[in-house]
Each structure stands twice: as C-alpha cells, then as structure tokens.
Specification:
Elements (H helix, E strand, L loop, with lengths): L2 H44 L4 H11 L1 H5 L13 H40 L4 H36 L5 H29 L2
Helix pairs in contact: 4-5, 4-6
Length: 196
C-alpha cells in the first residue's frame, strides 16, 4: 500500500470513528432522555397521578364537581372565641356535607361503572380502581385546600383579636378523623357491594 493510500485510509478510518462516537453519544443522550421521561411518567402513575385520567375524570364529572366550593356560607366576624366558632361552624359543616355528597356520588358512579363493565365483559378492576382512587384524590386535594384556607382564616381572626388559636388544632384533628372514617366507610361499602 502506498503512503498516500495509507494516509487516506487512516484519515477515513479516523473520520468514521469520530462519526461513530458522535452517533454513539447521540444515541446515549436519546436513551437517557427517553429513560428519564419514562421514569417520570412511571413514577407519576405509580404515585396515583395520571394527567390523562384526570382530564377524563374532569370531563366525566365536570371541573366544578372537584373544585367548586364557592357557595359555602359566608363567615362573619366574631367578637369572642365562642362567637367566632359559631360563625365558622356552618361553613365547616357545609364543606363537610358537600364533600360527603360528592364522595357518595363517586362511589355510586364507580359501582354503576363496575356493574356495567361486568355485564359487558369488559371489566378491568385495576383500571377502574385506579380511576376512582384518582377521582377521590383530586376531590380530597381540593376539599383539603378549601378546608385549610378556611381554617387559616379562622386562625388569623383569632390571632388578630388576641384569642387562643388551639381550637383550630382541635378542628383539624376532627377533620382528619372524619376523613379517615369516611374512607373506611366507603371501602367497606365497596367491599360489601362487589365482594372484594
């Protein structure tokens, strides 16, 4: 082989190695990006958040079902601890009533869908369960947000008037207890209806 040919051969060889390294880097970067996206999507799905399912639920039930609590009774100002509690009590009760009604609606809808899919032979318990767990989580998140905004408002009013705020901790404990009780109640209802 002549010197010139050897030189051309080595140049060609080096160029093709550089192209191969560049392609390899591009492939690795692409694989890394795809892996990150899949991990992020898988994690969000495993943790119960599925943006596609959330959109489907909002179309099925409407946005207001999950997040509109604007028609709660207005809270007036109180002069002492007892009057402030009395002013907030109807609003807390109305929020609880709305949340319970909407949870019962979700349970009814889940059971209707379950029986329909069972009749049609299309029942996938995993998919149906995830759908209604996510619906419950969306509702819970919005009810929690409304509850804590109201509780913070009450706490602020008590603080401004130099009154003790410990009552807000008691109200929060009652709220968490009521949520836990309702979750157990719904789970028991569901088990008794579908035999799971």
């Amino acid at each position: 082989m002549s010197r010139r040919r050897k030189s051309e051969y080595h140049s060609s060889y080096r160029r093709s190695r550089r192209r191969a390294k560049k392609r390899k880097r591009q492939i690795l970067v692409s694989i890394s990006i795809i892996t990150i996206v899949l991990i992020a999507l898988g994690t969000s799905l495993a943790l119960g958040f599925n943006p596609f399912l959330e959109r489907q639920l909002r179309l099925q039930f409407g946005d207001a079902f999950f997040s509109d609590f604007s028609d709660l009774p207005e809270v007036g100002e109180g002069d002492d601890l007892e009057s402030i509690i009395e002013n907030y009590e109807p609003t807390f009760e109305a929020l609880e009533q709305k949340a319970m009604e909407r949870l019962d609606n979700l349970l009814t809808s889940a059971l209707d869908e379950y029986y329909q899919q069972e009749r049609d032979g299309t029942l996938d318990r995993f998919v149906l369960t995830n759908k209604y767990i996510q619906a419950g989580r969306i509702l819970e998140k919005n009810v929690d947000q409304t509850f804590y905004e109201l509780l913070d408002k009450m706490k602020d009013e008590l603080s401004r008037k130099g009154l003790p705020t410990e009552i807000t901790e008691e109200i929060e404990k009652e709220y968490q207890g009521a949520k836990d009780d309702k979750k157990r109640e719904l789970l028991n209802k569901l088990r008794s209806k579908v035999g799971s």
